[in-house]
Design goal:
The complex is a heterotrimer of chains A (about 350), B (about 375) and C (about 250).
Chain A: H1 4-18, H2 37-43, H3 53-69, E1 88-90, H4 93-101, E2 108-111, H5 135-140, E3 145-148, H6 153-161, E4 165-168, H7 174-187, H8 191-212, E5 219-224, E6 235-237, H9 242-249, E7 253-254, E8 263-265, H10 268-273, E9 278-283, H11 292-300, E10 309-314, H12 325-336
Parallel strand pairs in A: 1-2, 1-3, 3-4, 5-7, 5-9, 9-10
Antiparallel strand pairs in A: 5-6, 6-8
Helix pairs in contact in A: 1-2, 4-7, 7-8, 8-12
Chain B: H1 11-23, H2 27-48, H3 59-62, H4 73-106, H5 119-132, H6 136-142, H7 146-166, H8 174-198, H9 201-211, H10 220-239, H11 241-247, H12 251-256, H13 261-283, H14 289-301, H15 305-329, H16 338-357
Chain C: E1 6-14, E2 18-27, E3 32-37, H1 43-51, E4 58-63, E5 66-67, H2 73-79, E6 80-83, H3 95-100, H4 115-127, H5 143-155, E7 161-165, H6 173-188, E8 192-196, H7 200-206, E9 209-214, E10 217-222, H8 224-227, H9 230-237
Helix pairs in contact in C: 4-5
Classes of the chains: A alpha/beta (about 350), B mainly alpha (about 375), C alpha/beta (about 250).
Amino acid sequence: MKAPTSTQPRRRTHRARSAGPVRPAGPVRSARPVRPAGPVRATHHLRPARLPGPLRVFCWLGAWLLLAVHGSPTNGVSTTLPTQVKRVVSLVPAATEALFEIGAGSRVVAVSSFDTWPPEVLELPKVGALIDPDLERILSLQPDLVVVDPSQPALVVQLRTAGIDSIPYGTATIADMLRDMRQLATRIGLEAQGRLVAELLETQLEELRGRYARAAAPTVLMVFGRSTGSFANLYVNGGVGFLNEIVEIAGGRNLFADVERQSFKAGLETLFSRVPDVVIELRSARSGPVDMSTIERDWRALPGFAGARVGAIVSDALLIPGPRLPDSVRRIAELLHSE
Amino acid sequence: MVITGTRTPSAARNGASRRLRRRLWLPRRRFRYLVSAMAAAAVAAALLGPLIGSTAIDLGAVWRRPFDWAANPDAAIFFVARLPRVLLALLVGGSLALAGATFQSLLRNPLATPYTLGISSGATLAAFLALRIPIPAAVGLLGELTVPAASLAGSLVATAIVMGLAGRRGELPTTVLLLAGVSLNFTFGAFILLLQYFADFTDTARMVRWLMGDLEGASYRLLAMLTVAAAPAWVLLARSGRALNLLALGRREAAALGVATDRAERNGLLGAAWLTGLSVAAAGPVGFVGIIVPHALRLLGGSDYRVLLPASLLGGGAFLVLCDAAARTLLAPVELPIGVLTACLGGPFFLALLLGRRGRPGIG
Amino acid sequence: MPAPLLEADQLEFGYDAPLLRDVHVAADGGECCALLGANGAGKTTLLRLLAGVEKPNSGHVAIDGDNLADVDAAHRARLVGYLPQASPRATGLAVYEVVLMGLYPLMPARGWESLAEWRRVVAALRRVGGRQLLRREFDRISGGEQRRVMLARAIVAEPPVLLLDEPLASLDPGFALELQSTLAELLAGGAAIVMATHNLELARRLADEVVLLRAGAVVERGAPADVMSPATLDFTYGTSAFGSGRA
């Protein structure tokens, strides 16, 4: 609602002064009577009535928050009843391996761009991975179920919009992995096989733990990320996560087990501070062939490391906590107990 | 074309009006041409953008009834993978360009971008914190919007800090603002590096990816929230052209010509900062849009902010949709990060405009 | 006797140290008041206070009965045309756009200028001898031409009060003379003019009242013939060059 009596003259003033006929070099004084001093002065603090500012902002924020909380996802956990799952897209390499292991390999229609195992997946379409899932290609494959990393909530929402179920597959620790393997198996209707594979894995790992247990476990420094000839960009395996567990099962003692993270970037000084019995360097298979002797020379050149054993594993398998975990343990154990 | 208020019976007078109109490229006509051109570009981008992508879809099947996306992959791709993304590009590009133009006026600096005052650094820092340390309660409540929400909160904190540092005595001196912004950028930048340094392998990858800008997470809920949140700022800024025209010349000039400077500056800064925060929260710090689009439009249609601001809002959106379309198709099936594309496309385009203009007489 | 069109009383201003102390200025329609004083005497500051661009620490400025502290910025701008001391740089605007800004206070809050406004822009430019500048880029014309354009902007809305900061600065002598007659015309039309100037000739010819400022305080005021004596000028400017015999 406006206050017509007081705003009206003001408008007329504008028109009279702005759109009126031009006074080329006219006397200025003549302009003055046109501007009625009274009403102008009276109106400048009269505004059209509407909700006061803070209240408007408050209403608007309220509507907005309602929108935010409405329809929040339950963080990726599918709540729909399991239907027959025939087409699965896996964005998690560990899940892909698990799917093949429990006998659902034929249902996998696409995998992540990091998948290389089992060899059958090399033939399958690659649809991105953790940070770059290609939603469009995933949808074009018409999956019933997409296996996602727990850190992909936005993708889960998009998939749900398209009517596609998803299931998170955590791989932070071996226990996470085994739990999610069972859940995934249940979800696709192969509960028994899932339990079987998971229990077999557990037994194997326990057996290996017993076999490699030593009174004096060698200390292990496990690193990755650096390139030959340099110690820049070096990541060290910390005390959290499946890599640490692998080292422990293989009878080693992680030198940086006290650092409570999966991995961390380490400088030379950090390395010098603790000299391990064994250095294990992980290299990705895609980074090409590795010359073992240069790696050994790099490490032996560090002060204090002259006596350390140096081993390198060129494989992506070690970074994938799946059915090949026992193999990974054995490969580490070989390096630890080779003498 | 009819211009109101000029109807005089005299034919000679009409001839003179026409001559005057021809001689001056009136802002009103520029507005008409440029803003309709940009609106057309934005509409065209919104319509054509979803037609291309990494897979071939049957466009006829997209509209097949009933609308069941689970059963109709073409419709699912169109409506879930492509359309939200295109719309997000439209909203984010427009908001960033509008914010950029506003900052260029308020900071009286043609090099100002939406990120000059450190707002995006605050947003990035908060987003990284949310990536590293997810708060379970917040994750449960906000779901996939946790990181955007944290990022928005970060941008608000940064804005509050900058305006608090600069805003003594109710004024916002430009140099102090700029210096506060630059130092805030450095400070937040240091913390961002620190977080990246302490992050593990996968988190680092996600952080780097976030910094390049990302339109992939678009959901309709995000779009609805972004629109509701940004619309008041769009209206506020797109309407404040006259005040920004004057403020670009100096705050005393603006005050002398009828601008309530303290309020106009505060509103402008808050509006632009809010748009920047929302954009960064929704799509990461997509670079270059906020500086290239306003300047390209300046070269096309002059510096009158009454023309420039609405044109930036529409043109920025169209530009980002175009960049995103290129990002999705240039190296398909590999997608390029959007921030890389805006720089790759925008830089040369802007240079071409700049060189083409040399030697030509100015606007008007 | 009714209050003059422009009246400022007991103005005090300063950030840390006071810049202006107890200054009184008044000019009625058709009157011209010239502010004289050495560099840094407070002329520009005083004009800013009169234009409402700065707020006085105490005292008040009233134009046509409106106290500037009580009216909003748009209304204030309709009362005052202000020529600042420096021209804006890197505007990216054409001359006609710069002059048009002078009409912003008269235009409705939204909407575009009509052809009538553009005619006023052309007329104002013609008045300052800058008609041929109309379509030029403001950033590329000379400093003197920019002054003309700024002057056109100050007078385009034909405000009742004109505040001119160094109106003759960087103008060629020919145009300086023309401008004097333009200002005289404006005065004859009923405008009140307050100008800060270093041009004593201009002050003698045009001003009805001269206010001599020194270190933020009024030294002397009155008709030019009465107060612009060598002794007062020497005191005002802190020299002995005017021949007062004082050291």
